[in-house]
C-alpha cells in the first residue's frame, strides 16, 4: 500500500500548476523575439503597467538592464549552477533581483524588488558568517553551524537539515529552533513527503518559498496565442504550491516554509528547511544570500564527503594494489594462502562480521558466519544469479526464497567474483542490527485516499518503529572502491589459463614418456618371451629328441644317459614354468587391479614358513641360509605379498652366491617399520648393473654362479609389490664382495 501511495504522490503534475504566489513577478518571454507572452496579474506593482500594456512588447521596453544578459542566453545558462542565471541591478533606491531560466524553450523571469538599505544590511550580516563555514573541522560542525546561522540571521522559528536516504525517505540530522516550536531532530519522514516531482524541482531551484496564508493567489495573464496554454513552471520559485502541500503545512502548524537545496555528490543530497509559525516571507536580499550560503554549505559538505571518500578509497585501493601485485607475482596454487592472510583486513575494511573465501567451489570461513546449510543456499543463489557481477544487500531475508527466519541472522551480504570460473568469489557478511526509528507520524498513514481525493496525514507525533531483519548498510564509498577488485579476475584468468596450459604440456609430456615406457616394456616383454622362453623350450625339444633316440635303440640303452636327458628336460620345464609364472605375476601388477589384503600376523610363524620353504633349496646348492628375527613382533600387512617379495630377493641371493657362501635374512623393527635385510657374500654387482636393476627395458640377465638363468623380473616385481604396501627397497653391492638388499614395510 505504501508503494501505491508513493506512486500516486510521484505522479502529481505539480509543474503544470499555472498559479502564482504574490511575493514576486513572473514574466514569460518568447525565446526568439524576447517578446512578453505571459505575466503575473501583479505586473503593475513592478512595471507600473497593466497586463495588456505589457503583453506582446519586448522586455527591453521595461527592463533594458536585462538586454545584454539575454544575448547568447543558452551559453550563459550552461555555465551556471542549476541552469539559473541570477541577476541584481539597481533602479533609484530599489534593488531588483531577477532569476532567469529557460524551460521548454520559453524564457522565465522571476523578479523581486527591495529597498536598498535593508539589502545592504543583509549582505553585511551574511558576509560575516561566510568564512566561518569553511573553518568547520567535520561534517557535524557544518550541519550544526548551518542551521544555527540561518536561524539566527533570518529569524526563523525552526531550521532543520534534512538528509535524503537511498530510498528517498529522509532524516532530520541537525536543528536550530525557538522554544515555542516542537523539535524534529532525529525524526524520519517517508519519501512521499517530498515526492519525485518536488525533488526534481529542488534539483533545479536553489530556493523554494511557500506561503500558506497568501494574501492572494495570482493568475497568469497570457496573450491571445497562448491563452489556453499550460506553461511548465516546475523550476519556478513563484509557482503556487499544490493544495496537498498547503494542507501538509497546515497540519504541521506552519505558515511559511523556505527550503534550500543541498546538491552534493552530483545529486540532491538534502534540504535546509526553514519554518515560521506566522506569515513571514524573507526579503529578496535575504533569500538571495540564503541561496548563496546554502550553496557554500553544499560545496563544503561535498568537499568533506569527497575527502572522506578519497581517504577511505585510498586505503582500500592501496591495499588492493598490493594484493593484486602479490597475486600477479605468485603461482596460482598460492592464491588460497594469500587470501587467508588478507581475510582480517578485507573483513575489517568493510566492517563485516564474517568473511568467506570461495575458490573452485571450496569454502573457507573467517569470523562469524551462518550455518553451513544457510551459507550453501546463499552460494547457490549467487552461482545462479550473480556469478559475474557484484551483489550486495542489507536485507537478505526480504528477498524471494530467503524469507525463513535463519536468513535474518546475517541479512547483510556482499559478494564479489574474483574469477570467471563458477564458485570463485569473496563474500562479506553482516549480522542483523535491530534498530529503533523515530518517525514524524506513522509512515504507513502518510496519506489518505478517499472519494474526495488524496490528503496528507494529520498527525506528526513521534511514532517509534523497531526494524529487524536488516544489517548496517554497506558503505557506497567502500563498495565503489572494492568493486575495482573485479580487475583481479583478468589476472587470475591469465594465471589459470597458464596453469591449464602447463598442466596440458605436462600431461602430453607424461603421455609421451608413458608411451615410450610402454613401448620399451612391450619390447622387453617380447624379448623375454622370444629369448628367455625360447631357450628352455629349445632344451625341452632337444632333450626330448635325444631321449626318444636313446629309447629307440633298446639294445644299446644306457640308463644313466636316459636319466641325464630326463633331468635336463625337467630343468628346462622348471625354468620355463618360472618364467611364465613371473610374466603372469608382473602382468597382473601392470593392470593396477591387484588388491592388497592386510591382516595381523605374528612374525615367528612367518619366519618358520620362510625357513621351511627356502633352507632346503639353499642346501641343494650348498649355500647356507640363516633367517634371524626379533621375538614377539606382530605385523599388520599382507603376509602373502611380503612372502612373494622375499621369494624373488632370496632366489637372487642364492643364484649369485657360490657354494659354501652364507646368506643372512634378518627381520627386525625400526620405529614403525618392518625392516628386512638380505645380505650375501656372492659375486656382487657393478654400479652400472645396479642402475639397471629396476628397469624392465634394460637387458640385465647375468647368469648365476652355476650358470642358472633368470627372467630379470624378480626385483622389478618385488618393487611393484612394495609400492602397493607403501614400502621401499634399497640395494647396495660391490663386485666380489656381495650384495645387501634392504626392505622396509609399514608395520601397521
TrEMBL record:
Swiss-Prot/TrEMBL keywords: Chromophore, Coiled coil, Kinase, Photoreceptor protein, Receptor, Sensory transduction, Transferase
Catalytic reactions of this protein: ATP + protein L-histidine = ADP + protein N-phospho-L-histidine
UniProt enzyme class: transferase
Alphabetized Gene3D superfamilies for the sequence: 1.10.287.130, 3.30.450.270, 3.30.450.40, Histidine kinase-like ATPase, C-terminal domain, PAS domain
GO CC annotation terms, alphabetical: plasma membrane
CDD domains: HisKA
EC number(s) per entry: 2.7.13.3
One GO BP: regulation of DNA-templated transcription
Alphabetized SUPFAM superfamilies for the sequence: ATPase domain of HSP90 chaperone/DNA topoisomerase II/histidine kinase, GAF domain-like, Homodimeric domain of signal transducing histidine kinase, PYP-like sensor domain (PAS domain)
Keyword Transferase: yes
Domain called Phytochrome chromophore attachment site: residue spans: 138-296
Keyword Kinase part of the UniProt annotation: yes
Residue ranges the record marks as coiled coil: 494-521
InterPro entries noted in UniProt: GAF (IPR003018), GAF-like_dom_sf (IPR029016), HATPase_C_sf (IPR036890), HATPase_dom (IPR003594), His_kinase_dom (IPR005467), HisK_dim/P_dom (IPR003661), HisK_dim/P_sf (IPR036097), PAS-like_dom_sf (IPR035965)
Protein origin, superkingdom: Bacteria
GO molecular function annotation: histidine phosphotransfer kinase activity; phosphorelay sensor kinase activity; photoreceptor activity
PROSITE patterns for the chain: HIS_KIN, PHYTOCHROME_2
Record-annotated Histidine kinase domain positions: 528-748
Family: In the N-terminal section; belongs to the phytochrome family.
Name under which the protein is recorded: histidine kinase
Species annotation: Leptospira ognonensis
Amino acid at each position: 500500500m505504501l508503494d501505491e501511495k508513493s506512486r500516486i504522490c510521484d505522479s502529481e503534475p505539480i509543474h503544470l500548476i499555472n498559479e502564482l504566489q504574490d511575493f514576486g513577478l513572473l514574466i514569460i518571454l518568447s525565446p526568439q523575439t524576447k517578446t512578453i507572452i505571459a505575466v503575473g496579474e501583479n505586473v503593475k506593482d513592478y512595471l507600473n503597467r497593466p497586463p495588456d500594456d505589457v503583453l506582446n512588447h519586448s522586455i527591453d521596453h521595461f527592463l533594458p538592464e536585462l538586454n545584454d544578459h539575454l544575448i547568447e542566453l543558452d551559453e550563459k545558462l550552461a555555465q551556471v549552477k542549476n541552469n539559473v542565471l541570477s541577476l541584481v541591478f539597481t533602479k533609484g533606491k530599489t534593488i531588483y533581483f531577477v532569476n532567469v531560466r529557460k524551460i521548454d524553450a520559453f524564457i522565465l523571469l522571476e523578479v523581486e524588488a527591495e529597498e536598498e538599505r535593508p539589502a545592504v544590511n543583509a549582505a553585511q550580516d551574511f558576509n560575516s558568517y561566510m568564512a566561518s563555514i569553511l573553518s568547520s573541522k567535520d561534517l557535524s560542525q557544518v550541519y550544526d553551524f548551518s542551521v544555527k546561522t540561518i536561524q539566527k540571521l533570518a529569524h526563523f522559528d525552526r531550521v532543520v537539515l534534512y538528509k535524503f536516504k537511498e530510498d528517498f525517505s529522509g532524516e532530520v540530522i541537525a536543528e536550530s529552533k525557538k522554544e515555542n516550536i516542537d523539535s524534529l531532530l532525529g525524526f524520519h519522514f517517508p519519501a512521499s513527503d517530498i515526492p519525485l516531482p518536488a525533488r526534481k524541482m529542488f534539483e533545479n531551484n536553489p530556493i523554494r518559498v511557500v506561503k500558506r496564508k497568501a494574501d492572494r493567489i495570482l493568475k497568469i495573464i497570457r496573450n491571445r496565442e497562448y491563452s489556453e496554454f499550460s506553461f511548465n513552471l516546475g523550476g519556478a520559485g513563484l509557482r503556487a504550491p499544490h493544495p496537498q502541500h498547503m494542507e501538509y503545512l497546515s497540519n504541521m502548524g506552519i505558515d511559511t516554509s523556505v527550503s534550500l537545496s543541498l546538491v552534493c555528490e552530483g545529486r540532491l543530497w538534502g534540504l535546509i528547511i526553514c519554518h515560521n509559525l506566522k506569515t513571514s516571507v524573507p526579503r529578496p536580499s535575504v533569500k538571495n544570500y540564503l541561496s548563496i550560503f546554502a550553496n557554500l554549505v553544499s560545496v563544503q559538505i561535498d568537499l568533506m564527503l569527497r575527502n572522506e571518500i578519497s581517504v577511505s578509497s585510498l586505503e582500500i585501493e592501496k591495499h588492493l594494489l598490493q594484493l593484486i601485485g602479490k597475486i600477479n607475482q605468485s603461482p596460482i596454487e598460492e592464491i588460497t594462502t594469500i587470501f587467508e592472510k588478507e581475510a582480517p583486513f578485507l573483513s575489517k575494511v568493510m566492517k563485516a562480521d564474517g568473511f568467506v573465501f570461495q575458490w573452485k567451489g571450496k569454502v573457507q570461513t573467517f569470523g562469524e558466519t551462518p550455518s553451513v546449510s544457510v551459507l550453501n543456499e546463499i552460494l547457490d543463489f549467487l552461482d545462479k544469479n550473480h556469478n559475474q557481477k557484484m551483489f550486495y544487500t542489507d536485507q537478505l531475508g526480504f528477498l524471494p526464497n530467503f524469507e525463513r527466519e535463519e536468513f535474518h541472522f546475517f541479512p547483510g551480504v556482499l559478494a564479489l567474483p574474483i574469477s570467471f570460473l563458477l564458485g570463485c568469489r569473496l563474500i562479506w557478511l553482516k549480522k542483523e542490527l535491530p534498530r529503533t526509528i523515530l518517525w514524524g507520524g506513522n509512515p504507513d498513514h502518510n496519506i489518505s485516499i478517499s472519494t474526495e481525493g488524496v490528503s496528507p496525514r494529520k498527525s506528526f507525533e513521534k511514532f517509534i518503529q523497531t526494524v529487524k531483519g536488516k544489517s548496517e548498510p554497506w558503505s557506497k564509498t567502500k563498495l565503489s572502491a572494492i568493486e575495482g577488485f573485479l580487475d583481479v579476475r583478468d589476472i587470475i584468468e591469465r594465471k589459470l589459463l597458464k596453469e591449464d596450459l602447463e598442466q596440458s604440456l605436462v600431461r602430453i609430456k607424461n603421455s609421451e614418456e608413458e608411451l615410450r615406457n610402454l613401448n620399451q616394456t612391450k619390447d622387453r616383454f617380447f624379448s623375454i618371451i622370444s629369448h628367455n622362453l625360447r631357450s628352455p623350450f629349445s632344451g625341452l625339444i632337444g632333450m626330448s629328441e635325444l631321449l626318444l633316440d636313446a629309447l629307440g635303440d633298446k639294445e644299446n640303452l644306457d640308463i644313466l644317459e636316459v636319466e641325464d636327458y630326463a633331468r635336463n628336460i625337467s630343468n628346462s620345464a622348471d625354468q620355463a614354468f618360472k618364467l611364465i609364472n613371473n610374466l603372469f605375476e608382473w602382468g597382473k601388477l601392470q593392470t593396477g587391479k591387484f588388491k592388497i589384503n592386510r591382516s595381523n600376523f605374528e612374525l615367528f610363524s612367518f619366519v618358520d614358513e620362510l625357513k621351511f620353504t627356502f633352507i632346503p633349496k639353499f642346501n641343494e646348492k650348498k649355500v647356507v641360509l640363516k633367517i634371524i628375527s626379533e621375538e614377539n613382533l606382530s605385523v599388520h600387512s599382507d603376509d602373502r605379498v611380503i612372502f612373494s617379495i622375499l621369494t624373488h630377493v632370496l632366489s637372487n641371493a642364492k643364484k649369485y652366491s657360490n657354494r659354501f657362501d652364507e646368506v643372512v635374512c634378518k627381520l627386525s623393527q625400526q620405529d614403525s617399520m618392518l625392516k628386512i635385510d638380505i645380505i650375501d657374500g656372492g659375486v656382487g654387482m657393478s654400479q652400472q648393473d645396479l642402475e639397471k636393476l629396476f628397469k624392465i627395458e634394460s637387458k640385465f640377465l647375468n647368469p648365476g654362479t652355476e650358470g642358472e638363468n633368470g627372467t630379470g623380473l624378480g626385483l622389478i616385481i618385488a618393487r611393484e609389490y612394495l609400492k602397493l604396501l607403501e614400502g621401499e627397497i634399497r640395494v647396495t653391492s660391490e663386485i666380489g664382495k656381495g650384495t645387501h638388499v634392504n626392505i622396509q614395510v609399514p608395520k601397521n
